[in-house]
Every structure is written in structure tokens, then in C-alpha cells.
Task: inverse folding
């Protein structure tokens, strides 16, 4: 939404170029970080932690609906 708003008042080409560059940098950081994390954490550990977090967030959501 902010990209659309910024493109309405600024140069749309510059806004698009900045958005693409920012996305590329964020993706690059995620890839490098994931590769480094994969050297220290097993896939099984990631699966267990993500499963537990899923259950915690599901319980918190259910609790907030009461």
C-alpha cells in the first residue's frame, strides 16, 4: 500500500526500482541467512519448533475468540 501511495506522489519508475531493489536485497539476506542457519540447525529441529509454534498460535487465536 505504501508503494502505491508513494508512486502516486513521486516518480513511479523510481518507486518501482526502489521496491524491486529492496525486495532483491531482502531476498538475498534471507537466502544467505537460511544457508548459514542450515549449517547449525537440523531440518527435524525446524519442523518441531514450527509445529509447536503453529499450535501455540492456534491456541492463542482460539482463546482470543472466547
Result:
Amino acid at each position: 500500500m505504501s508503494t502505491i501511495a508513494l508512486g502516486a506522489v513521486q516518480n513511479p519508475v523510481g518507486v518501482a526500482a526502489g521496491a524491486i531493489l529492496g525486495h532483491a536485497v531482502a531476498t538475498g539476506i534471507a537466502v544467505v541467512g537460511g544457508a548459514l542457519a542450515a549449517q547449525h540447525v537440523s531440518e527435524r529441529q525446524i519442523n518441531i519448533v514450527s509445529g509447536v509454534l503453529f499450535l501455540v498460535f492456534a491456541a492463542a487465536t482460539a482463546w482470543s475468540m472466547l
Observations:
- Helices lie at 2-9, 12-38, 43-64.
- DSSP finds three helices and no strands in the chain.
- The mean pLDDT is 93.
- The chain has one domain: 2-64.
